[in-house]
Fold this protein.
Amino acid sequence: MKTLSKRKEPKEMVIKTEKINMPFKVKDCALITRMGGVESAVNLRELRDRISSCPIESIFHHFCETFIRPTFDDPEFRNDFAVWSARSLRDRVLAERLGVINPYKLESFEALRELVLDILDERLSELVYIPWVPRGEDFRFMRSVTVVFDTGLTLETVDDLITQLPNMSYSSIYYHFIEARRRTPDKVDDFTEWLSDFGSGTEELQHILKTVDFYYLTLPELKKTLIQALQSRKAEVTHGR
């Protein structure tokens, strides 16, 4: 009688790396917002003058911390200057020029300041009169302190990053994937920097993370994009493609 061979169940393929890395401690964060240290602006000329002298932390806040700020709900523009131009100044042209700026494509936030000033100067030169906003709609310059705390979640392997990403909060995603670009030497996210220390074997995952165009995504959209991208790559490795 012919003996039937036992069918082997497919094994999950782990992405191999050359060395064991230090554990990745997942952090979370919250913002404490305060005044930016300059007077508010009631017209376009004042906006230009205030931006030229405000702390760079205020520029960062109005361009980048809108991701995590619960009061920011504009579906069209990602920075406060563009939103104010559209809603209060009623200047759609200026709003669109400011709205297309991606601060993470620039060398520094001082370069961002200079770009914004150039756009405002150009717009001022085009206008016959200086537009003012209605009473109570002045632009108030703010800045924030980021309070960071431990979540208790630790990643040991590359697979841990892929499997635990769905369990991370939106503010953790913000801290490690967006805010990290101010802290890391190469201006990359914390996940990419951690993966790079494993040696060879994680290059493609690093490439996937680096190519995510995150600035115009909401945090829920960004989290979904990261999960799909990393899980798709793991599926390809698991099935030997």
User: Anything to note?
Assistant: Residues 37-140 form one domain.
